[in-house]
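thought: fold this chain, then report.
action: predict
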Amino acid sequence: MAEHLRKRGTAVVVRYGKVLLVKDRGRHRYSLPGGGVKPHERSYQAAARELYEETNLRAINTTYLCSFAGSASMHKAFIIEAEGHVHLRSHGELDGYMWWDMKSDIPAFGHVYAIMDYYKNKCVNQ
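observation:
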C-alpha cells in the first residue's frame, strides 16, 4: 500500500522547546521541512539537503526518529541538529516559517501532528 507514496526525507529541528515549521508559497498549512528523496540519495541526506535549500540551516547531526505514511508521502523523519539562522530565499518555494511550541492549535498538515506526537512520546516524555 505504501509503495505508491513518494519517499520524503523530513527534518525535525527543535530549538528551545519549539519545532521549525515551514509554509509553501500559496499554501495555508504548515509542514515540517524536507522533500523528495533523489535517486541514489538516502532519506537523511534528503532531509538535510532540503533543510538547507529551504531554510539555509546546515545539518550537523541527524538521528532517525520514525517513518510515517501520509496521504501522499512516506516520511522518514530525522531529528536534525542544525546551525545557522533561518533565511528563506525571496523567490523560493516557501513564503513563511514559524517556531511552533507543539501545543498551540495551528493550520498544519496531518504528518506534522503525527510525527510530533511520536517525537513527544519518544524524546520528551521519557
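thought: worth noting. The two ends are 32 Å apart (CA to CA).
final: C-alpha cells above.
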